[in-house]
């Protein structure tokens, strides 16, 4: 008899499903890829066939030019049967639009690969669903006890307060173009901000894609061609790379803000030249990682792309079987 879970093999460039000859989030082109979400450290072009949610496929099409003929859309809750009698079901991960956990079933065993996930409510995507399994493959991006994300309402209050207290200046928010920017905009709307939110040109197409998939972001306009004085007291959203480049000089004395879970680390904020750190993450924090493992209560936990050692030690201290996968090619993409 084969050892348990021998059909799912961690390789340096991804998780390989042996009987299906398929990969989860492979770091290089393969014949058959099951993709959890559209961030570049999980989704890449060049595969023979890509299986993902319709939203993720749309994101990949926008970002990487994935050919529709080589893709298979799978809705949340839908199950597809792969070669070798492997069943794959896509379950919401709560990370960004279209993000999914992938439940694999084979030989009476259940494995959940989470990709990236968060447990906080997010108006731009369905919430994470706890799914029973034998093996739980979890990220550990913020897998240290110091990472405890504050309520997002508090961070929105900081952002709106800075705008109100600095007459004539604008607030320039650095936010990753996929997921973080749209979440910041949606949370500002939830906080009652109804004015125009201005966008760097690099943010426009992804925001429109979100709107095309039913996410209401309110009045958005591009900064290009707008007189400098028209942006006084405005909120402008840009990629993190644009916070301190020549593009930002066209704005009226911008207050530089950055929306990222890494803003918990003051040195990171100082290195970026950020005046207003906003601790807003699309990943689970330490408490949410450990709570999720406890809720799923798998026979085994596999830990990947992040602070593997601390979460591995927590599993050991709580008598949970665990292993670190040490997959390559996974980054946090300016969470």
UniProtKB/TrEMBL annotation:
Superkingdom field: Bacteria
GO molecular function: RNA endonuclease activity
Annotated ranges, domain Metallo-beta-lactamase: 11-176
Entry-linked NCBIfam families: Xnuc_lig_assoc (TIGR04122)
Classification via PANTHER family: BLL1145 PROTEIN, CLEAVAGE AND POLYADENYLATION SPECIFICITY FACTOR FAMILY MEMBER
Protein name as it appears in the record: Putative mRNA 3-end processing factor
């Amino acid at each position: 008899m084969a050892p348990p879970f021998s059909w799912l093999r961690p390789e340096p460039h991804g998780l390989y499903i042996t009987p299906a000859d398929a990969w989860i989030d492979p770091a290089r082109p393969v014949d058959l890829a099951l993709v959890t979400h559209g961030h570049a450290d999980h989704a890449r072009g060049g595969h023979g066939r890509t299986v993902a949610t319709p939203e993720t496929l749309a994101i990949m099409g926008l970002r990487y030019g994935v050919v529709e003929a080589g893709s298979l859309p799978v809705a949340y809750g839908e199950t597809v049967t792969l070669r070798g009698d492997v069943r794959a079901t896509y379950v919401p991960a709560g990370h960004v639009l279209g993000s999914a956990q992938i439940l694999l079933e084979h030989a009476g065993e259940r494995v959940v690969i989470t990709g990236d996930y968060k447990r906080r409510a997010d108006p731009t995507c369905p919430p994470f669903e706890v799914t029973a399994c034998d093996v739980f493959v979890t990220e550990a991006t913020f897998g240290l006890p110091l990472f405890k994300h504050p309520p997002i309402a508090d961070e929105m209050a900081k952002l709106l307060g800075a705008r109100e207290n600095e007459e004539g200046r604008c607030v320039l928010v650095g936010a990753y173009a996929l997921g973080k920017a749209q979440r910041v905009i949606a949370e500002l709307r939830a906080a009652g901000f109804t004015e125009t939110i201005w966008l760097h040109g690099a943010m426009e197409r992804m925001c429109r894609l979100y709107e095309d998939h039913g996410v209401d972001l309110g009045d958005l306009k591009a900064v290009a061609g707008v007189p400098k004085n028209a942006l006084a007291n405005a909120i402008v959203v840009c990629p993190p790379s644009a916070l301190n480049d020549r593009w930002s000089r066209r704005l009226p004395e911008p207050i530089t803000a950055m929306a990222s879970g890494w803003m918990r680390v003051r040195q990171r904020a100082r290195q970026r030249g950020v005046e207003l750190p906003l601790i807003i993450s699309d990943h689970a924090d330490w408490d949410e990682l450990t709570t999720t493992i406890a809720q799923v209560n798998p026979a085994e936990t596999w830990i990947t792309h992040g602070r593997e050692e601390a979460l591995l030690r927590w599993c050991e201290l709580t008598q949970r079987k665990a292993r670190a996968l040490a997959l390559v090619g996974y980054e946090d993409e300016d969470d």
